[in-house]
Amino acid sequence: MQTSSRRQLLLNAAGGLGGIAVASMLHQQGLLAANNAPLRPQIDPSQPFASRDSHFAPRAKNVLMIFCSGACSQIDTFDYKPELIKRHGQPLPGAENLLTFQGAQGNLTKSPWKFRPRGESGKMVSDLVPMLGELADEMCFFHSLTGKTNTHGPGENFMSTGFTLDGFPSMGAWLTWALGTENTDLPAYVAIPDPRGTPQSSVNNWGPGFLPAAFQGTDFNAAKPLRNLQRPVGIDAETDRRTRAFLQSMNRRHLEDYPGDSELAARIASYELAARMQLSVPEVSDLSTESAATLKMYGADDTQNSLKAAYARNCILARRLVEQGVRFVQVFNGAYQTGGEGVSNWDGHKALEQQYSKHGPVLDQPTAALVRDMKQRGLLKDTLIVWCTEFGRMPTFQAGASGRDHNPDGFTAWMAGAGVKAPYTYGATDEFGHKAVEKVATVYDFHATILHILGLDHERLTFYHNGIERRLTDVHGHVIKEVLS
Fold it and tell me: Which InterPro entries match (predicted)?
């Protein structure tokens, strides 16, 4: 081996120090590949839900998601297609002998509901959802979303978790793992099932997957309170308080003896949150404090449509949870099939007009009131509202039926509130509403954009699991910067 001279040693040392300085400056400017290293939240096991900083300045602090289970038709709600109306009853061009999820397709079929210009923007929205249509100027529409599956369970999984398979963390779990919550007396993540029941993929929609179990969504609604929250019969409040205080002192003493036991600290934190929830959840769920005017605005006092009234109470509960600082609230409209296809959700295969005529009013007034109420209370300044469904529906009716089949090739979602432009329309489907053709976007892009609005880099928010750096957007996704305010 050749030995270096003193001069060479000094030259190499100077060059090395210069390289370190250049690398440091490049890192600060975000120009190094190493800047793509994971950014995992630093979580204190004794305070797993403590509020944490985002990767960069967020545009919104909370998310309120309205999920229409069953695949709500874009053709009959928000995606206006005059050519579809003009060519009603004709074959879909270039799609002879087309087979989709349930089989052969019939002819192009216009919506049974008329579309009208809404708001100052003149956005065309269907008479199926007229009250939501009145709020078109508040909305940022995504008309070019595409999915990966045409099956409901995997489709719900994909929209909620970024994967079609079971076992992956939901978006709410990712967000609360990353950011915690601002209210330590309530769950960081609440899922509110439809009054008719849970969606087809059930708890997968709000599950933690491989993230710590603490970040699973807590599910309850206005009609069904949180389970196992009340004291057992025969135990009075004072006995319960003293028992919890004694248990707390024992847990703390044990933790002092084993300070490195993070699982014990997490269990203690979970039990203590449950104890606080005995007071906070009944309070936030008590809608009797709402004014008669508010109940009327939402339709919660509707004696003719009990399902709409029940969903309206869920929407009021959602607003109250956001008001109290809950990070992620997920409201479901539609449940798993009960009584046949499309009876309890938006899966309108065979009798779309008849079934949607029932679903539309349930969704429309309460959801529109929720957006209005959030705005008038100033909650939209920090809250992103997301309306979505698992995929869209065909512009044709199925052969021999009066409904639309599944269509993941082009469907609609919208956002409102903090972080997005409004009124604004992004992307488009073809002239019939069949396939996304302009600014085609994936669900991965949709998720990446939501995370970005919350101040999170979707490529760097990862969790190491089974040898893979997992993330909500898998290895895909781009932030749709055009929609950002």
Answer: Alkaline_phosphatase_core_sf, DUF1501, TAT_signal
Cα–Cα distance measured from residue 14 to residue 6, given in angstroms and rounded to the nearest whole number = 12
Q: How many CB atoms lie within 10 A of CB 409?
A: 20
Residues 6+ apart with CB under 8 A from 478: 444, 445, 448
CB 332 within 8 A of CB 190: no
Give me 189's structure tokens.
Answer: 């993540």
How far apart, in whole angstroms, are the C-alpha atoms of residue 156 and residue 145?
14
290's CB contacts (< 8 A; 6+ apart) are: 300, 316
CB contact set of 438 (below 8 Å; sequence gap of 6+): 144, 427, 428, 429
E runs forming strands in 73-229:
99-100, 103-108, 115-118, 123-126, 139-146, 189-192, 218-219
Pair type for strands 392-393 and 424-426: unpaired
Q: To the nearest 10°, the Cα dihedral for 192, 197, 201, 203?
A: 50
Q: What average pLDDT does range 111-130 have in this prediction?
A: 98
Burial (0-12, 13-18, 19+ Cβ within 10 Å), 35: middle
Least confident of 81-90, 186-195, 196-205, 250-259: 250-259
Does the pTM surpass 0.90? The reply is: no
Distance CA 406, CA 343 (A): 16
β-pairing, 139-146 vs 411-417, is antiparallel
State the Cα angle at 106 between 100 and 107, rounded to 5°.
Answer: 120
Residue 340 pLDDT greater than 60, yes or no: yes
The stretch 439-465 carries a mean pLDDT of 98
The pLDDT of residue 276 is above 90: no
Question: For strand 62-68 and strand 328-333, is the pairing parallel, antiparallel, or unpaired?
Answer: parallel
Model pLDDT for residues 356-405, shown as the tens digit of each residue = 999 999 999 999 999 999 999 999 999 999 999 999 999 999 999 999 99
